[in-house]
Design a protein that fits this description.
Layout: E1 8-12, H1 18-28, E2 32-37, H2 42-50, E3 54-59, H3 65-79, E4 84-87, H4 105-133, E5 136-141, H5 145-148, H6 154-174, E6 179-186, H7 198-209, H8 223-230, E7 241-244
Parallel strand pairs: 1-2, 1-4, 2-3, 4-5, 5-6, 6-7
Helix pairs in contact: 1-8, 3-4, 4-6
Length: 251
């Protein structure tokens, strides 16, 4: 029996990149998974179902309140409850590195809308359902850049720093409801959105050199931490951020 047998999880941004791995491992551990994204989720759902797991795909733009409400409603209609929320949807790989002076207000707002407000909106929609059951696991995805002060992506780093603060403050609000709120801060990970992109190819070797474990980070490196924060193994841990980056940022 898996660590998440009988649980129901929502993974935002589960249609591509690291989100696919998150959804797969939760299903492999026994959870029923609602895979949500603005892109197609059929591939992820098929991978899970063909492996003997159970998943549904839901179109959801985390900046659209109606989409989020529909995501919650469809998950409840299908599985009856929500135990786990993985706030993975984010704008990152498509951003161009550059001076903060070249970031216009529209791009800044777009990053914040997805990476910060999207987490708030999804969490706000799901927590009432967790409260009904007196149990829940919220896992936010920040970034190791927050602890390194990584330059040339000020809007992204700021948005992920907000998630660390969000995690700490929310943990205190919902602890008495049996809900834990924790955060994973990955390093630069070789997902499908990063591999082969010239701007990330240009920095990946330098990034790897900063690590205590000097190799590229793969999506699979994050799944153990995700399962831990999603399972009963972490029932007395909340408000915490765990950096998973091979020892590049230590705090």
């Amino acid at each position: 029996m898996g660590k998440l047998e009988g649980r129901v999880a929502i993974v935002t941004g589960g249609g591509r990149g690291i989100g696919v791995e998150y959804a797969k491992v939760l299903a492999a551990e026994g959870a029923k998974v609602a895979v949500t994204d603005i892109v197609e989720t059929e591939t992820t759902v098929n991978i899970i179902n063909q492996a003997g797991g159970e998943a549904i795909g839901i179109h959801c733009d985390v900046t659209n309140t109606e989409n989020i409400q529909a995501m919650v409603a469809q998950t409840l209609d299908t599985y009856g409850k929500i135990d786990i929320l993985v706030n993975n949807a984010a704008l990152f790989a498509d951003l161009k590195q550059g001076s903060f002076l070249d970031i216009d207000e529209a791009e800044w707002d777009r990053v914040m809308q997805i990476n910060t407000r999207g987490v708030f909106s999804c969490t706000k929609a799901v927590v009432p359902e967790m409260k009904k059951n007196g149990y829940g696991k919220i896992v936010n995805i920040a970034s190791g850049t927050v602890f390194k002060g990584t330059p040339m992506l000020l809007h992204y780093v700021s948005s992920k720093g907000a998630q660390v603060a969000f995690t700490r403050a929310l943990a205190r609000e919902v602890g008495d409801d049996g809900i834990t709120v924790n955060c994973i801060a990955p390093g630069l990970t070789m997902s499908e959105k990063v591999v082969g992109d010239p701007q990330w190819d240009a920095v990946k070797d330098g990034n790897t050199a900063t690590r205590a474990i000097k190799r590229e980070q793969m999506p699979e490196d994050l799944i153990g931490t995700l399962v831990f924060f999603s399972s009963s193994d972490s029932d007395f841990i909340t408000g915490q951020t765990l950096v998973v980056d091979g020892g590049s940022a230590m705090h």
